[in-house]
Design goal:
mainly alpha, 4 helices, flat
C-alpha cells in the first residue's frame, strides 16, 4: 500500500477518535460534571494518539511537516462535518462548504512543487 494512502487511512481513523473525544461528550455526557467528560475524553484520545503518531511517522518519510499538518486539517474537517450533522444533529451551513474551499486552497499551496 502506498505510504500516502497508509498515512491518510491512519489519520482518518485517528480523527474519528479525536472527534468523539473532543465533541462526543456534548451529546452523551452533557448532564455529567465536566471533569468526568474530560477523563472519558482522555481515554478516547489515547486511541487517537495510537493511530496519529504512526501516521505522522509513516507520512513524514514522503511528506513535509507542513504537508502532514494540512492533510490532517483537511481530514479533520472531512470527519467533523458529517459528525456534526449526523451525530450532533447540527444544521448544515454553507460555511462548511466555504471552509472546505479554503482548505483546498491550503492544500494547493502546501503540495505544489
Amino acid at each position: 500500500m502506498p505510504i500516502a494512502l497508509q498515512t491518510i487511512l491512519l489519520l482518518i481513523c485517528s480523527n474519528v477518535f479525536m472527534t468523539f473525544a473532543w465533541y462526543g461528550h456534548l451529546k452523551n455526557l452533557s448532564d455529567k460534571p465536566w471533569y468526568l467528560a474530560a477523563l472519558f475524553s482522555w481515554g478516547i484520545a489515547l486511541f487517537e494518539y495510537l493511530l496519529m503518531v504512526p501516521a505522522n511517522r509513516i507520512g513524514h518519510t514522503v511528506m513535509s511537516v507542513g504537508q502532514l499538518k494540512i492533510l490532517q486539517e483537511v481530514i479533520t474537517l472531512s470527519v467533523f462535518i458529517p459528525f456534526a450533522i449526523l451525530y450532533l444533529k447540527e444544521p448544515f451551513k454553507m460555511d462548511f462548504v466555504y471552509a472546505g474551499l479554503c482548505m483546498l486552497g491550503a492544500v494547493y499551496f502546501m503540495f505544489r512543487t
